[in-house]
Request: fold
Amino acid sequence: MLGISRFPVDDNIRNLFKRFDQGQCQRFFSGLWSWQLERLPECGPGYSLDLDSTVFERYGRQQGALRGPNPRKHGRPSHHPLVAVLAETHFLLHGWLRSGNCGTARGAVEFLKEALALLPEKHALRVMRADAGFVDQQLLGFLEQRGLCYIVVARLTRWLKREAARVTQWRALDEHYAAGEFSLQLLGWDRPRHFVVIREQLRAERPSLGENCSMLPATPFASSSPTWRYRPEQIWRDYNRRADMENRIAELKHDLAADDFCMHEFFATEAALRSILLLFNLLGEFQRASRLTTYRQPATLRLTFSFVALCSAAPDGSSAR
Reply:
């Protein structure tokens, strides 16, 4: 199928990745990403760009494997990659491997500059969505300077609790939820920004709302409302669709073993990671070329098409079964 007489052994593949440095990673993968983006279908309203980070646990002394935020194993050395996904097509627009001691928003502006440079002009961005780790003045200022709309969930700090408690006009969405809004300039910000607050009524059948929600049942979202005139409930529901981003990260880890390919050299590991992101996008292009009506995970594709290949190679129906 590949047109080669012999397939390289594991050592040859590792030695190939060891040749990559920072410049070679940029030159090699930017061309492949450009080819994939040319085949990406257009989205009329514009794409939603979801930004997130994850943790790759490491067991050794690899370059960049440092102690940092690790929710599962505290103190374990890790890498802390950053990933951007076009939600409507499940397309991985960009990915970075970072040291384990990096904060969530560290380097996010430079990362987005590279991601936006990859995106062709014919593809517009409707909104950028991120979690509370990206509530950063530098990042939000960059998005506003570029004129990009954003929705970022904010941690319910005491300042936001106090401001949310002062909201007097709540619009009921149903019997359990209500929406409000206010403007607030947090510490380190250069100007006030718009916040949307969603309040949930405490219920006996839902005891898992958490301590913060019991004190004040409200969830704040920072949004670029002055340039993006949506109702608070529309912003909230739009952000909820970002939860599908966690599925992409889970597929990279569990289906494609993105956190298992690790070498001593940092940029060799980054080259391996970008190769896996490239493979993920190729599987998406395969689904579009096959005209599959619904998105299927990489593990589902492997199981389905391996079974189809087995049945087509069987000499009779009994062997196929």
Observations:
- The chain has one domain: 10-289.
- Confidence is low (pLDDT under 50) at residues 210-217.
- The radius of gyration is 23 Å.
